[in-house]
Amino acid sequence: KIEKAHPQWIRLVREILNDRWSEQISLKEIADLVQVHPVTVSRFFPQYFKCTLGQYARKLKIDKATTLLRNSQLSLTEIAYQCGFFDQSHFIRVFKQTTGFLPKEYKKL
């Protein structure tokens, strides 16, 4: 949870990332939206989220992918595209790095 003592811009960054999880959004665009310098966002993000901005964005995408794997009959390619990955192989690689499982293995669990 993000505490109320944290800066407002941190809460806004979280909202933006959660609302636009399937989009490729740049650091500059995020910084412009929250009206903070990109270096500030990049530098302080790990202090509040315990990971980098990119890691957080990938985690959101993988969370959505796990839901789709469990609750849909979509192919891995369709899931990859819906979750904002460039292609199926990129999706599989990031999924394995994040969860420790291949998507097909995860689906069988």
Protein architecture, described:
With 109 residues, the chain is mostly helical. The chain has seven helices and no strands. The chain has helices at residues 8-19, 27-34, 38-49, 53-71, 76-82, 88-99, 103-108. Helix 1 packs across helix 2, helix 2 (27-34) packs across helix 3 (38-49) and helix 5 packs across helix 6. The longest helix has 19 residues, at 53-71. The chain starts with 7 loop residues before the first helix and ends with a helix. The relative contact order is 0.11. The model has no long low-confidence stretch (mean pLDDT 92).
- Classify the secondary structure makeup into a structural class: mainly alpha
The unreliable regions are none
Distance between the termini: 29 Å
How confident is the prediction overall: mean pLDDT?
92
Oligomer: single chain
Evaluate the radius of gyration. Answer: 15 Å
Broad shape:
elongated
Count of strand segments: 0
Helix count, DSSP H or I runs of 4 or more residues = 7
Q: Main beta sheet, described?
A: none
Helix and strand run:
HHHHHHH
Question: Gist?
Answer:
The chain has helices at 8-19, 27-34, 38-49, 53-71, 76-82, 88-99, 103-108. By secondary structure, the chain is mostly helical.
What topology does this entry show?
Layout: H1 8-19, H2 27-34, H3 38-49, H4 53-71, H5 76-82, H6 88-99, H7 103-108
